[in-house]
Design goal:
Two copies of one chain form a homodimer. Chain A has helices spanning 11-22, 42-47, 67-77, 88-109, 111-119, 125-149, 164-178, 187-197, 200-203, and strands at residues 3-6, 28-31, 55-57, 63-65. With 214 residues, the first copy, chain A, is of the alpha+beta class. Chain A has two domains: 3-81, Glutaredoxin (3-Layer(aba) Sandwich); 88-201, Glutathione S-transferase Yfyf (Class Pi), Chain A, domain 2. Chains A, B: Belongs to the GST superfamily. Zeta family.
C-alpha cells in the first residue's frame, strides 16, 4: 500500500495528496503532527533525515522526500492524467510556475521559519504577519503577472488540464487565506484556484478533509 | 545565440552556468546587477515579471525562468551528458537532493531576504549572520545525513557523474563559505564539492570567473 506521511495543513503534503488523487491512486495516510514537533521524532527522522513531511512510501518500498520530486515520480510511474505538458517548453513553463511558489514563496512562510521569527527574533504577531504577507504579495504579484500575461495560461495555470503548477498554487492560496492576506489584486490566481477547487481531486485533498484535521 | 541573464554571485545563475558548461553549450552572458537593483529595472521585468535572475533565452527565442526548470529543459533538449539518472527512483532522489538545497536552504538566505532582515526587521550584522548560519547548518546537517547514509551516493551526490543535485550543492557551498559557515561537520558535502570543483565545467562557472565579477 502506498503510504503518505504528512500533516493536514502542510502545503507540501497537500500538493502530493492532489497528485495522488488526480492519478486515482489509493494511499494510506500517517499523520505527523508538526505543531507537536513529531517530524523531529526518531520514527520520522529514520524516514527522512531532514525531519520534514511529506514522505511517500510506495508499495514497492521506495521512500521519497520533497513534494515536487514525489509528484514528478508519480507522474513518471503513472503517466495518466499527465501533470506536465508533452512539449519541453511547456514542461519548463509549468515547472517554473511551480517553483515560483515552491522555491520563492512557501519556503519563507512555513512553520519552522515562523517559529524562528517568534522564538529567536522575538517578533510580535504584527511583525510576523507583515513578514508572511510581504512574501505572499511579492510572489503572487509576479505569479499573477505571468498567468495573466502569458498566452499558455488556460482554464488552469497551463492549458485546460491541471498540472504541477496548480498543485502548488492551490495549497499556497489556502495558506494565504489562513493568514488573511488580501487576494483581491490577483484575479487570475483566484479564478484558477476556484476552478481547481471544483474538482474532486483537489477538494478531497483539502486540509479540512484529512483524518488529522483538528 | 543562447543568452543567460544572470549575476556572478547568484546561486541560481551559477547552477545554470554549470549546466550549460557540462552540456558544452555556447552562451552569451548579460549581467543584471542585483546589488544595484537592476533586476527591478523595466528591461529585466519585461524578461521576467518576478524580477529575478537567471533568465535563459534560447537561440529559438524561448525565454525561461527558474534555475531548476531551466536545467531540466537543457537536459531534455541536450540529453548528453545526462543531469538526471535513467531510472525513476534515481531521478526522484536527485531531484529531492536538489530541492533540499533549492527549496529549503537557498530561499531563506538570498539577497532579498537578507535585505528584509536588515531594512524591515532592523537586524544587526550578528543576528543576520546567525540567521544565515542557522539555515545552512539545518540544511547541511540533513543533506550530509542523506549523502553519507544512502547507498546511491558515489563520487558525486548520485553515482559517479554530476547531476542536478551537484549543480545545486556547489553554489550553496560557495555561499556558505562566503558567510564563513563552519563546514567541518559535513565531510561528504566537502568531498563531493571538491571533486566537482576539479571539473572544468564547474570551475569555469564559479562566480570569480564571470565577466561581471567585482
Amino acid at each position: 500500500m502506498t503510504t503518505l506521511y504528512g500533516y493536514f495543513r502542510s502545503s507540501a503534503a497537500y500538493r502530493v495528496r492532489i497528485a495522488l488523487n488526480l492519478k486515482g491512486l489509493d494511499y494510506a495516510q500517517v499523520p505527523v503532527n508538526l505543531v507537536k514537533g513529531e517530524q523531529r521524532f526518531d520514527a520520522n527522522l529514520a524516514r527522512n533525515p531532514q525531519g520534514l513531511v511529506p514522505v511517500l512510501e510506495t508499495d514497492e518500498g521506495v521512500r521519497l522526500a520533497q513534494s515536487l520530486a514525489i509528484c514528478e515520480y508519480l507522474d513518471e510511474r503513472h503517466p495518466e492524467p499527465a501533470l506536465l505538458p508533452a512539449d519541453a517548453e511547456g514542461r519548463a513553463r509549468v515547472r517554473s510556475l511551480a517553483q515560483l511558489v515552491a522555491c520563492e514563496i512557501h519556503p519563507l512562510n512555513n512553520l519552522k521559519v515562523l517559529k524562528y521569527l517568534v522564538h529567536e527574533l522575538k517578533l510580535d504577531d504584527d511583525a510576523k504577519l507583515a513578514w508572511y504577507r510581504h512574501w505572499i504579495a511579492e510572489g503572487f504579484t509576479a505569479l499573477e503577472a505571468r498567468l495573466a500575461g502569458e498566452a499558455a495560461t488556460g482554464v488552469f495555470c497551463h492549458g485546460d488540464t491541471p498540472t504541477l503548477a496548480d498543485l502548488c498554487l492551490v495549497p499556497q492560496v489556502f495558506n494565504a487565506e489562513r493568514f488573511e492576506c488580501d487576494l483581491a489584486p490577483y484575479s487570475t490566481i483566484r479564478r484558477i484556484t476556484e476552478r481547481c477547487r471544483s474538482l474532486k481531486a483537489f477538494a478531497e485533498a483539502a486540509p479540512g478533509e484529512q483524518p488529522d484535521a483538528g
